[in-house]
Amino acid sequence: VYPRQGQGAQQQASDEYECHRWAVSQSGFDPSGVATGQTNTVSTSGRSDYQRARAACLEGRGYTVR
Question: What is the dihedral of CA 31, 15, 1, 48, to 10 degrees?
Fold first, then answer.
């Protein structure tokens, strides 16, 4: 994630967290739950939906996502 509009580190961290929360609510997939073993199944479509939602949110806030 790269800022396009001069966002500082604190703003970027806040935006990334908010976009993570939004992407989880949109996709029903939480990668942090997978990382900590809180879920037994890993849905490929859920993961890709999460990634698309997160990227769309961050791009809408002025970031380049690669």
Answer: 30
- pTM to 2 decimals? 0.83
The sign of the dihedral angle between the CA atoms of 16, 24, 47, 62 is negative
* SS3 category, 8: coil
Instruction: Tell me which residue of 12, 11, 10 sits closest to 2, measured CA to CA.
Output: 12
The pLDDT of residue 24 is 96
Tokens 């949109």 map to which residue?
26
Backbone angles phi, psi at 27, to 5 degrees: -100, -20
Helical residues (DSSP H) of the chain, grouped into ranges: 9-27, 31-35, 44-60
